[in-house]
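User: As part of a screening pipeline, I want to sanity-check one entry by hand. Below is the sequence and the SMILES for calcium ion. Please return the complex as structure tokens so I can compare it with the automated output.
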Amino acid sequence: MKLSNLFIIFLLIFNISNCEKKKKNLIPIQNQVGIDKNGNVVIGTQNSSTTPNTTPSANTAPVGTLSNTAPTVTGVYENEVFSYQTMRVVTIDASVVDGSDQPIVGAVVEIRDTTNVNTIYQQVSNSSGRVQGSLNLNTTETTIYVYVIYRGVTTPAKAVVVRTGDNKVLVRITQIKIDLPTSTITSTGSSSTGTSLTDSDGDGVLDSIDDYPNDPNKATRLKFPTNGVNTIAFEDLFPNAGDADLNDSVVVYYIEEDLNAAGQIVEIRGNYQYMAHGSGFQHSLYLRLPSTVNVNYSSEVRNGNGVLLGNAAMTKSKTETTGINAFTPSVTDLQDGLRILGNTNTTMPAWNSRTTDTTYVNGHFAKVKVVFNTPVARSVIGLAPYDTFMRNESKNVDGTYPTDAPRAVTSAGSFQVYEVHRPGFYKFTSQATVDGDLREIGEDIYIDKNNFPFGIVVPGLWKWPRESRDLRILAQTGYPKFANWTSTQGVQDANWYSDSAAASSTNNYYASVITNKAALDTPNSQLLAFLGSVNSFAEFQILLGLLVVGVIGYFIIKKKFQKA
Ligand SMILES: [Ca+2]
Ligand SMILES: [Ca+2]
Ligand SMILES: [Ca+2]
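Assistant: Here is the complex for your manual check:
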């Protein structure tokens, strides 16, 4: 058989296996933004900004009259305070109403990201017709898409702008309105156009959009990021301002959440890998959840070759190794933080940041699972990656740690006190002199005296700076757009981190790597490769089976034709 024939068979099988479970039509829509009498910004008006759904699929079948009517979305826009964040939060605290302004109970609100493909929010309106929660958007995302699904009918998307022309940013969605009285929505059952109203588990989310159609406790699975990985990076001289190379601890991660129909979080699955440790200090990586949550925690740690490490006591010593752990955290455990990756002495055996580190060394992997025995609202735990923080394991207590800064209940001797968090979690509650600078009440503890953050999240697999290269200084940075991004307060060059020149810049560690460089190439980061090999093994076996059947079938048919 020709190789090209084999390839076509493989492509066919591959395409079948990649069919999306959820299908909706992508509807281009122009927005109209106006201000209502209450000062709220209104996006779009009835029918004015919708495009008829010309090629409905089964899930968007025009059963009811909703099919040509996108919802009207009301939101609040504000000026944004720049704090080096590559993501922004949009709060959902909205009434879902019909054309008669009556609350709609049991409508599903789905919101998709700027691609209009990935679901980033899904929730059933409650008995008061409200939905609540929040979204995490990359600051590069310009538009989100809002759908309402009611009685099996899906509205077209309402495109909602995230940043307006006058640099106001969407901070809150307050109302989602479908423009017809619910009494006129005529779909009441399975229809000739194929819309199914089956809700097998009775959780209020139809099978067609229920990620867990047979589990009443779960309805939606979300991924952060929706594709690939993100990078989290820390500076470790806290509370003193660092050298802004943001490579002291570099971790890539990918998080999945399961939510119930009410939008409460019932399970978190996190996957992490140490990528670099550009520091003489020893670090570890932790997750802090509010001490009020009722959860079970389990973690599984593998070395850079994917080998599962041996069991170890869930101690908090400086030198522990970690294999499989599963426990029910106490209030003290929660305050101490749930350990994701232990001491870098073990878990990150190389700096991976100096020009002499020409061989990239894989750090350890961690898979963690948090099961909420009592589901929690989004507002309780915030958005992924939540309060994921770095602990400086080897810095002696020297009296400089701010009184207001968070700390573990348990500490090992005079160590394990210095925590480094991203901004947005902890503020000064009293005036304090830190790093020679007077800090005021309300200021963020994890933004230094130069207004630089101690931790950031960068979308994707970041090519981090090499040792001592200050990201902010044009002569040292591997990201020349960073300066303009900061000087324009985030208005311009929001995608500074996806600069194609970063790969060849000697200011980034990436350019120094000779051996094992493939491990640093997106999208084949070691974490993804590792996850892929674990999660896709069963799928791969099925594909292989289909391929074998296809090849055998081809030869049988070919032989028959040859005989004929
Ligand atoms: Ca269901
Ligand atoms: Ca379900
Ligand atoms: Ca460093």
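Points to compare against the pipeline: The two ends are 18 Å apart (CA to CA). The pocket of calcium ion (ligand 2) is lined by residues 201, 203, 205, 210, 212-213, 215-216, 218-219 (CB under 6 Å).
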